Every structure is written in C-alpha cells, then in structure tokens.
UniProtKB/TrEMBL annotation:
SUPFAM superfamilies associated with the record: S-adenosyl-L-methionine-dependent methyltransferases
Coiled coil: none
Lineage summary: Eukaryota, Sar, Stramenopiles, Ochrophyta, Bacillariophyta
UniProt entry keywords in alphabetical sequence: Methyltransferase, S-adenosyl-L-methionine, Transferase
GO biological process: methylation
Protein name: Methyltransferase domain-containing protein
Amino acid sequence: MQARLVLFAATLLIINTNIIYAQSFVIMASWAQTWADILNGGPKRWKVDDVDAKRAALSHIVQHSPNVDGRPMRILCPLAGDDPFVHYAWGQGHDVTAIDIVPDALRAMRGLFGHDMDEWSSEGDGGNSGAVWKHKSGRATLLEGDILSNRPELLRSFDVIYDKDSFGALALDDRPKFCERISEFVKDGGTLYVEVKIKDEGRESGGPPYHVEKEDLMEPTNFGGCFEYVCSLGEVYCLNMGGMKQTGHVLRRAPRR
Ligand SMILES: C[S@@+](CC[C@H](N)C(=O)[O-])C[C@H]1O[C@@H](n2cnc3c(N)ncnc32)[C@H](O)[C@@H]1O
C-alpha cells in the first residue's frame, strides 16, 4: 500500500513538473516571436535606450539603499530583455544578474558589453534549466530561463531588485509566483525599484503592458505580503507612447521572522 502511495505521489510530481515545463515553453515561444521581430528591425515596444533614464534609476536606487552605504551592490534584473540598465550598473562597479526566458534577448544584452564574445563563458545546455552566462569580470551573470522557476542558489542574494516593465508584463495569474520569487531572492531590507506603466484608459484596458498602481503592487498576494512601501517616484521619464506614462515606485523587503 505504502509503495503504491509513493508511486502515485511520484507520478503526480512528474505530471506537475511536465505541466510547468510546458507552460514555460509556451511563454518562451510567444516572447521569442516578439524578440525575433524586434531584432529584425520591428517596433521597439517597451525598450528605452536613453542612458539618462538608466542613470536616474540607479540614482533613485542608491538614494533609497542607505544600508548599502555606497558599497557596490548585487542587483537582480528579472525579465531583463536587453535593458541597457544592466550594462550601465555594471559599468558603475555593481554586480549584476539578469534573467530572461528568451536566449536571443540575452544575446543582445551581451552585445552591449562589447563585440568580444570571448569575454563570456557559458554553462548549461540551454534546455529547461537554461544556460548561465558569466562575464570575465566576474560581475555580470545572465540566466536563460523562467523567472517563476525555483532557484535555491539565489535565495537572499541581492541588495537590489530592478524591475522595469516586468511585473506589468506578466499575466495576472503569474504575479503572485513572481512576487514570491523576488521576495525569496532579495536580502532582508533590500530595495525593490519598480517601473510600471499607467494608461489613460486605466486598468480595464488589459495588457500587457498592464496598468499598474501602488494598490496592484501592494496587494497581499503580490509584493504586499513581504515588502513595505517606501515611496512613489511619480513619472520617471517621458515615454513616446501615446496614452501611457512610465512611473516608479520603491519598496523595501521586510525582515524575515
Ligand atoms: C516587457 S519586456 C521588458 C524587458 C526589460 N525589462 C525592459 O524593460 O527593457 C518583458 C521581458 O520579459 C521576458 N519574459 C517574459 N516572461 C518571462 C518569464 N516567465 N521569465 C523570464 N523572462 C520572461 C521577455 O522575453 C521580455 O524580454
């Protein structure tokens, strides 16, 4: 009887794991199409290349991270795409880790660090666990894979999470798991910098990108369960997208009990 129960539990685990892999694959396929279009010269969509916007974001982060006291920070950029913030923060001496489900997005990210691809080494087979890319400086790591995956190696690892258009890009059902992962990866007292869009048409307009306000971020099943709200930064820069504004928020990881 006990052996049957163990077999049944193992079967359920395998089915569940396969469902999770299948879901990741569907998400990946759809974002991979978007990236193929962008990299073939299609519309830039969410991309902001202006380094002034990245400088401003890092400056907000430094200002709201007094516990780091001017030291280099470990910064995680989930759903990073090829956001130039990663290269900018690295250039300022910080240790950066970026995660994206589309390998081509992270290939574009590596291109921002210069043409010499020998500066990067990779581990992993690019399969379900995804490849891990490391820069020879030892301060930049790019992880191919699903942000929703369990990553025990990242627990309590980061002083800062930089989330630009990540929370607002995910399907609504994926938000609680995303917020759980972020709350796992950040250190106690760590800073969460979030950029989201607000839309003239409001929440009813759907997404992605979704219309996101403080109330959405701070829902108990989202960041509200583990983070304190620090401040709103209002509109952080002007977007060339009709009917939308880019707004910023700062949250802080509450100490674990
Ligand atoms: C709206 S874009 C934002 C990219 C970047 N943060 C920026 O603002 O430039 C969302 C990104 O998330 C990636 N993505 C979507 N779902 C993901 C997931 N479950 N895990 C990891 N990356 C994901 C997509 O490939 C895409 O690059």
